Structure prediction request, 215 residues.
Amino acid sequence: MFSRALFVLSVLGTCLAVYTPATVLARDENPSDQDLLASCPGGPGSGLARADRCTLASLECSLYVNIVNNPQTRLFSLLGDVQLNCGGSSDDIDVTLGGQTTVGSTTTISADIGIEGGGLSIGGGIESSIENSQTISKQISFTVKPGRQAVFVAGTAYNSQTGNVQVNFGSRQLGHFIWITGTTVTQLSPVANDVVFDVHETACGTNPRDLNNSS
Prediction:
């Protein structure tokens, strides 16, 4: 993947040309990917103006930039409080597990460029066509054995896409309204109503919230 930013000439939002790395300005005359992404809505800001919008770049604007559809993934999160049977009793206890949580879209940046992707607002791709958050709520009855602890978990399916970021400015920045980052980002967006539930049960004295804990 190209490591330097590209710029796009645009009239009324229509992509006319993209300059490839062989024809872009020298690196020190280009905005850095850090500055470009920091200028996106939700970013911390940079020496550039605030961008009007940031979106995953597509082939509509460049033969060199593409959106990659990654395999769907499933992420698990805790649903409600941990219930314990750790007081030394030899009796089972009956409890209610579960609760409510909200899951949403996440953005991660492929390179360490000094900013976090979580607060950035980057549209386009699957992000523009689905709800980017959903509330999950469920409760069950469960019997916790002596010396055990349990928590309810929800596994949400996510669509995943990776692409470069097209940054649109309302005024020219270093001569151009539109820049495309060389760095890629990956967006995860929850799939509506595709959730599986499970009970995560572990031994007392261990971390019950660690979903890698198989004690």
